[in-house]
């Protein structure tokens, strides 16, 4: 496919969209945990969206600094669509980190929900 005198491999385009699913599921996992932790829907939405945005800012401001290790907790650190589209590089390790984060967040949300449900 060619857009604006630049070619993009269709396989790479598919790969970046497939990779984005793991990234978006990780972001949704943060929202799921927030919705279980707070009784108010408004507060849960604010905390969930604020956490994802805050993690993005943390990644952005610590990139290529002495505090770069702080940004390792941000999901955006593990999703680089440019590397996939330009060079065709898919980092399986980063995909594994995102997938693991999804599993951990969903399991933690489920356990927390069960304990809240039994206690209340």
UniProtKB/TrEMBL annotation:
The name under which this protein is listed is ABC-2 type transport system permease protein
Species name: Natrinema salifodinae
Q: Which keywords belong to this entry?
A: Membrane, Transmembrane, Transmembrane helix
The lineage's top-level taxon is Archaea
Membrane is among the record's keywords:
yes
Which residue spans traverse the membrane? 20-38, 45-63, 83-108
């Amino acid at each position: 496919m060619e857009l604006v005198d630049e070619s993009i491999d269709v396989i790479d385009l598919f790969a970046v969209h497939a990779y984005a699913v793991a990234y978006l599921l990780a972001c949704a996992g943060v929202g799921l945990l927030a919705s279980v932790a707070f009784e108010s829907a408004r507060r849960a939405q604010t905390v969930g969206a604020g956490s994802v945005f805050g993690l993005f800012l943390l990644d952005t401001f610590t990139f290529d600094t002495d505090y770069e290790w702080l940004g390792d907790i941000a999901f955006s650190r593990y999703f680089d669509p440019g590397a996939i589209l330009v060079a065709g590089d898919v980092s399986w390790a980063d995909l594994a980190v995102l997938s693991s984060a999804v599993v951990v967040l969903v399991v933690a949300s489920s356990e927390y929900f069960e304990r809240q449900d039994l206690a209340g």
